Amino acid sequence: MVLDDPRSPGPRLRPLEDVADPIPEPAATAVAVAVPVPPNAALLAAPLSAPLSTAGATWVERLVWLFFFAAPASVFLISIFLTADPVGHGTHTQLGLPPCGFLVMTGLPCPGCGLTTCFTAMIHGDVAAAASANPFGIMLWLVSFSTMIVGAVGFVRGLPVIETLDRLQADKWAILLSVTSLTVWCIRVATMLAGQ
Question: What whole-number distance in Å separates Cα of residue 56 and Cα of residue 45?
Fold first, then answer.
């Protein structure tokens, strides 16, 4: 215990005799913890206004963008020449395709039943008929239309495919579409079974 110097003008401390010496704390040890960092963490942390890579797209990336534009564009183009089936499904038979095998065998619609009818109704501006055919189809139609625009912009500007899809969170959109499709299908089947 240390006492103040008696020759200093300040107050003198009295020793505390009932206090034991403090127990020394163990020295802190450094522990290395490996935290996995996703390879695109910097990309995800960057604001959406940050510029994309300007290196230019390879010919493979341009083909991917062309596909992202052409696939939905061709579906929309074909839909222009079809007439939405008033039953709510079966419009695809106008293309020479057979009726839905799942529907024929079980009497219940498959998750895709009514999508061609929905797309045809949407392209002709009949949202009510589209929703009646397959409510999920409206969401899919909107995502397909957006995909066509993204494909055109990506092709023209030469954007990197993976980086752009990461920024648009395409994986989350795919999961949302899948979950919505299955949910709508379950509701449609349950409604049909309850009505029988």
Answer: 22
Residue type present at position 89 = H
Distances, alpha carbon 75 to alpha carbons 16, 137, 140, in Å: 89, 13, 12
Domain count, the chain: 1
Q: Does residue 15 lie in a domain region? A: no
- Domain-embedded: residue 32: no
Residue 154 within a domain: yes
Check if the beta carbon of residue 85 is closer than 8 Å to that of residue 95.
Answer: no
Cβ(72)–Cβ(147) below 8 Å? yes
One-letter amino acid at 60 equals V
143-192 pLDDT tens trace: 999 999 999 999 999 999 999 999 999 999 999 999 999 999 999 999 99
- Which residues are CB-contacts of 141 (< 8 A; sequence separation ≥ 6)? 118, 119, 122, 130
Length of the chain: 196
Q: Say if 17 falls within a structural domain.
A: no
Name the H helices within the chain: 41-45, 59-80, 101-106, 115-123, 127-133, 135-157, 161-167, 170-195
